[in-house]
Amino acid sequence: MGHYYDIDDILIEEELVSVVFQKAANGVGILDPGAETSTVEQGSKVELPFWLAHELHLRQAVSVNVPACFDQKTRKEIQADAACVDLRNRCAYFYELGCKIAPLVGDKTIGALLLYAFKSRYKDVLIKAHTAAFSLAPKFMTLLTNEETNLYEAAQSSMAAFKRWRMGGARFQRAAVLGKKRRPDD
Amino acid sequence: MAGQSDPHFSLFSAEEVEFMAEDEMIEIVPNMRMDPLNLLCGDFGPFLPQIATQVPLWLAVALKRRGKCTIRPPEWLSVEKLTEALEAERESPRVFQPLPFHYVEISRLLFDHARDDIPDIYMVRSLVEDIRNVRFHKIEINLEEIQGRAHAVKIKNLSAMEVNIVRPFVVRALQAFYKHDSPEMIDQSDTTANRRPQVADHVPRRVVRR
């Protein structure tokens, strides 16, 4: 499990993954929009948030499918040109979810896929973060996953802070109380 | 020592790096008479008219602002030296020239406070700017090479401000690489290497001893 107070970690676990129930479950029909009774039949396919799927998987109640963002089509696109794939649209937490889901689904290629994708997209983030003008950024930013966005913003904010320093500005900051003149009646 | 402005990431702001640069020594020529200053960081002076003496940059700037001295720009801050440095920077796409660790900050402080003491200030200023740009571009080229489970990036002769600019980015990038190239995630995949050949050609990894 991740960090208890990490908001991103909580949001990752909200991602929906599709699971197949291995056992019939009573009284949880709400989970399956197609269910007519309050029972989820054995073998029915349901989308559950990751945190629930994970717990049920540990109890061997469900088996987890590989999420759509790691399917063959995405893999081919990533191999063709990783930098242009719109990963944010597929899954904003592509890397983190991949790390969490790989042991559950037993798909051993996900780790390599993540590394390959990150390696090839990292260079693009590096180059654009330090040089691209702010006006160019929004279009490019829509492709990035959450982790890449953090990386991009870290680079850009430190560059912006440096530029602000170089341009100068107020070199001495006065405390607000210092500037005031004292009135005679004080 | 960690930065104070951002307690969360222990980063330095540009102003904090400048503050540290102010401890560098510089030569001044006073135009007044003053007893030696005995400060915690050392003894400076005595100050006699037309006798050059070494003081920290912050003291030099303070005296200069009061019109009590002229600052002698350091040797590297001259048109010849900077032109040489710029050419050398351009010639070698990987190697960085050994400039003073705080060259960005020192040159900015001197440009701001002692512009009349630097000969050819416009030329010098644009040379420093060019050098900084060339070097920063080289840093990016160097950083492009981060791959896999790197524990550190080794780039020689970087200056304080240059390191400070890329620090947040590099830290995050290294963390991400470290996570995604961890043996738990990757080593399993070696059995299926034939399915994705261009992904799985890894150099043997060293496992960190704990």
TrEMBL record, chain A:
UniProt entry keywords in alphabetical sequence: DNA replication, Nucleus
Domain GINS subunit: 70-166
CDD domains the UniProt entry points to: GINS_A_psf3, GINS_B_Psf3
Protein name: GINS subunit domain-containing protein
Keyword Nucleus: yes
GO aspect biological process, one term: mitotic DNA replication initiation
Key word Disulfide bond present: no
Protein localization: Nucleus
GO cellular component assignments: GINS complex
Domain DNA replication complex GINS protein PSF3 N-terminal stretches: 5-56
Protein family (similarity comment): Belongs to the GINS3/PSF3 family.
InterPro entries: GINS_A, GINS_bundle-like_dom_sf, GINS_Psf3, GINS_Psf3_sf, PSF3_N
Superkingdom, taxonomy of origin: Eukaryota
Pfam name, any one: Sld5
Xref: PANTHER family: DNA REPLICATION COMPLEX GINS PROTEIN PSF3
From TrEMBL, chain B:
One BP annotation, GO: double-strand break repair via break-induced replication
Record keywords, A-Z: DNA replication, Nucleus
Pfam families in the cross-refs: PSF2_N, Sld5
Gene Ontology CC terms: GINS complex
Major location category of this protein: nucleus
Chain intervals for the UniProt region annotation (Disordered): 185-210
Assembly mode: Component of the GINS complex.
Family under the similarity heading: Belongs to the GINS2/PSF2 family.
Highest classification ranks of the organism: Eukaryota, Viridiplantae, Streptophyta, Embryophyta, Tracheophyta
Domain of life: Eukaryota
Cross-referenced CDD domains: GINS_A_psf2, GINS_B_Psf2
DNA replication complex GINS protein PSF2 N-terminal domain boundaries: 14-71
Descriptive protein name: DNA replication complex GINS protein PSF2
InterPro entries: GINS_A, GINS_bundle-like_dom_sf, GINS_Psf2, PSF2_N
